[in-house]
Each structure stands twice: as C-alpha cells, then as structure tokens.
Design goal:
By secondary structure, this protein is α+β, with helices and mostly antiparallel strands. The protein is about 55% helix and about 15% strand. The protein folds into 3 domains: about 120 residues, Cathepsin B, Chain A; about 300 residues, Up-down Bundle (ABC transporter transmembrane region fold); about 250 residues, P-loop containing nucleotide triphosphate hydrolases (Rossmann fold). It contains 24 helices and 18 strands. The strands form 4 sheets. Strands 1-6-2-3-4-5 form a 6-stranded antiparallel sheet. The chain has a 6-stranded mixed sheet with strand order 12-15-16-9-17-18, with helices on both faces. Helix 8 runs antiparallel to helix 10 and helix 10 runs antiparallel to helix 12. It starts with 7 loop residues before the first helix and ends in a 19-residue tail after the last helix. GO terms for molecular function: ABC-type oligopeptide transporter activity; ATP binding; ATP hydrolysis activity; peptidase activity.
C-alpha cells in the first residue's frame, strides 16, 4: 500500500512494463499514476495494463500480433511490446524496405535513440504480445444517447457477419424456388408423359439441394447465434456502464424498483434486435427472390397476394396510435408496481419491525390491480388487429387456391395445374413474411416504448465527463472552501451559505453542528457528488471541478454512518477497491481499523462469508470493516461522516483509540454530532443553518462559541457533579 512518489529516482523503482506504459501514455498527453495500478502478479499482465490505461481515460487494447503487422506501424504512435521475460519496449517506428522495426528500451533515457531490430532477434524474446493505446477521441460511443440510432449503429458494427448471413439467406431463398419448380415439372412433364428418366433426374437434384440447404441453414443459424450473443453482450455492458456513471442524487430521488423496471426493458429490445428484426430482415431477402417468381408463374394470383398484404398493413397502421396510448398506461402502471416491490424489499427490516405487512400488501394489491386493468385494456384493443387480419390471411392462401383452381379448369394447355401447385407452395413461403413485415410495425411501437423507458434512465446527465478527462494532480490533502454556496435541487434555502474555511494537509479536522446544519453536505462536495455550487472548493490549490473524478475518489477514503457490505468473504470486502491486493494487505488495514481482533475470532477468519445485509455482524463490526475498506488503498484524505454515531461504547472506544494511528500521514475530516470524539482534532468547524459560526480547537471553542459550549454541556452533563438524576414530578389532577 506504499505510495510511489514522483521524480526520476522513484521512476527507476517501478518495473519495465509500467515504465513503457508511462512513456507511451505521456506521448499522447496523459500522465498515468503508478499508484492506481494494482496487480496480484509481480509481472503485470497485458489485460491489467490495458485496464489501467482505460481507467485513466485512454483507449487501449491488449492484442497478439505478428511481425508483418509491426511493419505497418511506420507513422503511428508508440506501441508497447511485452517480452517473455517480463520486460517491455516501445516500438517507435518500422521500415518495410529494410525489414526492421525500431525499439526503445523502457529503461532508456527520454532522448535515447531507438535501435533497429530484425525479425530473428525479436522472435527470441517476443511472441506477439503487445498493447495499443491512444488518447480518447472527442466522441465516444459509450457517451452517445441511448436511441434507436445508437442501436442501429450497434448492429452496423456487425456488418461482416450480417454480410455472411445475407449471402447465406439469399442462397437459401434461391434454393426454396427449386422445390415448387420441380413439383410443377413433375406434374406437367412426368405425370403427363410418364417420363421415368426425368423423375430420376429430378430426384437427384432434390437430394443435392436438400443436403446443401441443410448445411447452409446450419451455418447460418450458427452465425445468427454469434451475432445475437455479441449484440446482447455489448448492450448489457453499455447499460451497466451507464448505470454506474449516473450521479448519486439520481438514485436518491428515484426508487430502486422503478430504475430496475426501466432497465429491464433492455431485454425486450434485445429480443427485438436478435429475434423479430433479424428474422424480418431475412424474410425480406426471401421476398425479394420469391415475389418475382410468383409473378412469373401467375400474375393475377400474385396481385391478389400483394393486395391482401397491403390491407393487413393498413389495418395495423390504423391501430398504432390507440395501441401506443394504451401501452403507455401499461408502462406507467408497471413502473409504480415495480417501485412498490423494490421499496418493500429494500425496507423489509422496517416492514417487519413495525408490522407493516398489511399496509404493504394493500399497496401491492392496488398496484397489481392497476397494472392488470391496464394490460387487460391493452390486450382487448390489441386483439382487434389480429381478428381483422386473420380472414385476410386465409384469403391470401386459400382464396388464391380457389381462384387458381378456377383458372386451371379453364386452361386449355394443361400446364396451369402444375403452375398452381408451385404457386401454392410459394404462397405458403411468402404469406408468413408479408404478414410478419406488417406486424413488425406493431412490434416496433412496443420496442420504441421500451427504448424510451430505458432511455429515461440511461440518457440522464452522467456524473461528469471528467471520469475520462480532468486533471490528476498528486494529492497532498490541503482543502480550501472559499465563499462557497450550494443548494439542493427543488429547495430554496441553501444547504451551504457563503462557507469559507481551510484544512491544512495532514491535520485532523472536525465538523459539528445541529441536524441540518450542512455537515454532511460538506463531505458530499468533497467527494464530488455535487458539483453545481458557486464559489470555490480547492484541493491542493486545484479547483475540485477540474479534477478527474476517479482520481479524486481513489485519493479519498469515506466511512459513512450506515455502510453497505457486499456478499462475499471479509477479505473480499476489505480489498473491494483494490482486488489485486493480498491477505497481508487486508490484515494490515484491519489492524489499523481495530477490526483484526474480532475477525480472528470468526469461524473462518478472513474467509468468513458475509450474507446480504450482514446479519452475522454487529453494527460495530460492520463499521470497523468499513474503516478497514477505506484504509486499504492508503487514502490521502479520510472522511468519517458520522462513522461512530451508531457504534456501541466499546466499539467507539476501539475506533477512537486508533484515530491517531489512522490519521498519521493523511488529512482526516470527522463529521460527528458527538463532540467527545473530536477533542483531539487540530481544528473544529462549527456550523449552523448552512453557515460557519467558528473554526478553532476544542478548548478555544468552549470559551468563545456559545453553540459549541451548549452542545458540549448537553452531551456531557453526566460529568458535572452538580447535575443529578432528574426528579420525577408526580401528576396532579386539575
């Protein structure tokens, strides 16, 4: 957990792979921080290095390439080559004419010359592992709005696979023409003229066509499965990435159930992309082949089929707007139902403790009834298009057969019978795609609503683009609030009103005040949760709005009053922010937080499994684990936001005893309403109604700050011998 300070001497202490990454990133104007890189292995893997660069806001890919690829990097930026012995070098250029590449060692000086290396010498130390990286471009697909256009672009990226599917589908469509034509030939030629040789030839052709069609169909289905899996994966990754980048105040203002329901609509979008849309696209290819053949066989019957398809389309279009309005009611009802369910699950402890089961059940019954009514109304209206379309579908198939039979009876050539058989076989293949194409419009309306629901979450303003940009200064711990004013959304009274104070680096700083005075708001602003304030908030002389959010939060350790522990072992929870660290690192952080003693008494020690909600841990144990988790990455600034207010006296005594050790070498900000835990602070900020009343050490505040003196007297009355136990006053009858 030791920090790597800056400077040439410290640069020499890190490994060659990290050095190569630092120099390659510097070429693109990005300064990587070695303190942000954590890996379990002594030799960093390519994937870990690539993730390190991506976390810093760069585009990076770990790849395996051949010598012929290296020769193409003549004018590109540096490429990091990873050697077999754990070393690395920078590829700075190549010469295809001389068949050499130019490499610079990671340990070479900045102005050192690159060395020409041929394929034979390089192959002795390198097997193709490399890292490509560059600065992030201004437009990032991950930042694009979640719209139908974005989804179309997602599908377009699979153009190569879609090309193969198109070729296979076109070939299969051509092959579907042969069976009807063969049937027509059998009826018109074989049956009329008893030609056995023609029958044998046609049988051989059918066998070959069926075998080829089977193999080609199997290959097409495999490609479709791959494309579907890729689209699904990209969609899910994008959704979760956007969800993590939403600001905290969004989750504070929206029920978890509502958010989960809106995001669940992504599954409907996925099914549409990989199901209905793809199958309709393939059906369109079939129609492009079969419709001309249908007109070739019989023009009159073909026009009847197309007329029926147009009528079906018009019926569906007529119902689109009413269906859209009814479906929006379904969406609203389902959203409120999911919100009620999510709120009940999240607050189940309160429901059980207060016996609120009947009330929650009544609310759930009401929400289910509303959703059921909305779905029933939508289903009743949606059944009408199907009712009207069904007889037209029957006319398309059976009607053309009857009309064709009538035409065949009046055909003197005798060839109409075979043509009728062929036409009926083709009509069976054409009718379903035509109806499916018409219904695709209806499906699109539902998917359009689903896109709108998902977009209502995913298209919210993200926390900040500074996740990938922004300054990355080396944090020391000096904090300055200067004339800062901040108000929460939809409130008129400012939470902080022209607040100014200074926290020197490495000091212990306390913040006290009545409830609602703005204590926790100060901590929120320091974490970058809210940035829409006026005035200045500077960290080590740098405006906090300009600092990269990820870099900022990696330099902070935050312990809240109520901390959430994830399902998993105690060790996994402690090193959650640094998964590459070892058990010894977890033990060191636990010892510093005063948690080591109770962990070692657990049945499985650091491997003890924590269930959801941490039922096997006391409040004090959870709090000490949270402090250990905050300390695991050696933060420059540690914020304890009412971290000891919910502790029992024993646990609070353990944490308080370790505060001086915890504070060593870092800035510690303690937000608390218990003044006894702040007496060792270098300075204490007293706040009231969003304003600063005073800033001074404990003893000074007792002398000159009336509010602080009043709070201290209220909390420590038991220490004053003059105040005994209050005397009970007997009631009097009036």
């Amino acid at each position: 957990m030791a920090r790597i300070p800056g400077g040439p001497a410290e640069f020499d202490k890190i490994g060659p792979r990290l050095k190569a990454m630092l120099r390659a990133a510097r070429y693109h104007g990005v300064e990587l921080d070695p303190n942000e890189f954590r890996a379990a292995s002594a030799v960093p893997a390519a994937a870990d290095l690539s993730q390190w660069a991506q976390d810093a806001g760069m585009w990076s890919r770990a790849v395996r390439i051949r010598w012929s690829h290296l020769l193409r990097f003549q004018d590109a930026g540096p490429v990091v080559l990873l050697f077999n012995d754990g070393g690395a070098a920078l590829l700075t250029g190549a010469s295809a004419e001389r068949n050499v590449v130019f490499l610079k060692s990671a340990d070479a000086p900045e102005d050192g010359e690159a060395v020409a290396i041929d394929e034979l010498r390089l192959s002795q130390v390198w097997t193709g592992e490399a890292l490509l990286l560059r600065a992030t471009r201004s437009y990032v697909a991950a930042d694009a709005p979640f719209t139908l256009r974005w989804l179309a672009e997602l599908v377009r990226l699979e153009s190569h696979a879609l090309r193969d599917i198109t070729i296979a589908s076109f070939t299969l469509s051509v092959l579907t023409i042969l069976p009807p034509l063969i049937v027509m030939t059998v009826v018109n030629k074989v049956l009329q003229f008893n030609s056995i040789s023609t029958l044998v030839l046609l049988s051989a052709v059918i066998a070959v066509v069926f075998a080829y069609e089977t193999l080609l169909g199997h290959a097409r289905r495999l490609i479709i499965n791959v494309v579907g899996a890729r689209l699904d994966t990209k969609l899910q990754l994008h959704v979760f990435s956007r969800l993590l980048r939403l600001p905290l105040d969004y989750f504070e203002r929206h029920p978890a159930g509502e958010t989960m329901y809106h995001l669940a609509q992504v599954y409907r979008i996925r099914e549409f992309l990989t199901g209905k849309l793809l199958s309709t696209f393939l059906d369109m290819i079939t129609l492009c082949v079969l419709v001309p053949v249908m007109f070739y066989i019989n023009t009159a019957l073909a026009w009847i089929v197309l007329a029926c398809a147009v009528v079906i389309m018009l019926i569906i279009l007529a119902f689109l707007m009413p269906l859209r309005r009814r479906y929006q009611r379904v969406v609203d009802a389902e959203t409120w139902k999911s919100a009620a369910l999510g709120e009940t699950v999240v607050g189940i402890k309160t429901v059980k403790a207060l016996g609120l089961e009947p009330q929650r059940k009544a609310l759930w019954d009401e929400r289910v009834a509303e959703a059921g009514k909305a779905r029933l109304a939508f289903g009743q209206l949606a059944s009408w298009p199907q009712t009207l379309v069904t007889p037209i579908e029957r006319v398309m198939v059976l009607g053309t057969m009857l009309i064709g039979a009538y035409l065949a009876m009046n055909d003197r050539t005798g060839y109409m019978v075979g043509g009728l058989f062929a036409f009926m076989m083709i009509t069976q293949r054409v009718a379903q795609p035509l109806v499916g194409l018409a219904r695709l419009v209806e499906d699109y309306e539902e998917v359009g609503a689903a896109i709108g629901e998902a977009a209502s979450v995913l298209n919210r303003p993200l926390e900040s683009s500074s996740n990938s940009t922004g300054l990355r200064p080396r944090l020391v711990g000096e904090v300055v609030f200067s004339d800062l004013t901040f108000s929460y959304i939809a409130t008129k009274t400012p939470a902080l009103d022209r607040v100014s104070f200074h926290i020197p680096a490495g000091s212990m700083f306390g913040i006290v005040g009545r409830s609602g005075s703005g204590k926790s708001t100060v901590a929120r602003l320091l974490q970058g949760i809210n940035r829409d304030y006026s005035g200045f908030l500077k960290l080590d002389g740098v405006d906090l709005k300009e600092i990269n959010l990820r870099h900022l939060r990696q330099g902070l350790g935050v312990v809240l009053q109520d901390n959430f522990l994830f399902r998993g072992s105690i060790r996994d929870n402690i090193i959650a922010g640094r998964p590459g660290l070892t058990l010894s690192d977890a033990m060191r952080a636990a010892h510093l937080a005063g948690a080591q003693e109770f962990i070692e008494r657990m049945p499985n020690g650091y491997d003890t499994y924590i269930e959801e909600g941490s039922p096997n841990l006391s409040g004090g144990q959870k709090q000490r684990l949270a402090i250990a988790r905050a300390l695991i990455h050696d933060p420059t600034i540690l914020i304890l936001d009412e971290a000891t207010s919910a502790l029992d006296p024993e646990s609070e005594a353990v944490v308080s005893a370790n505060l001086m050790r915890i504070a060593s070498g870092r800035t510690m900000i303690i937000v608390s309403h218990r003044l006894a835990s702040l007496t060792e602070c270098d300075n204490i900020l007293v706040m009231d109604q969003g304003k600063v009343l005073d800033v001074a050490p404990h003893a000074t505040l007792l002398e000159r700050c009336a509010l602080y003196r009043q709070l201290w007297s209220q909390q420590n009355r038991h220490l004053d011998g003059r105040h005994g136990r209050p005397v009970a006053v007997p009631p009097r009858l009036v």
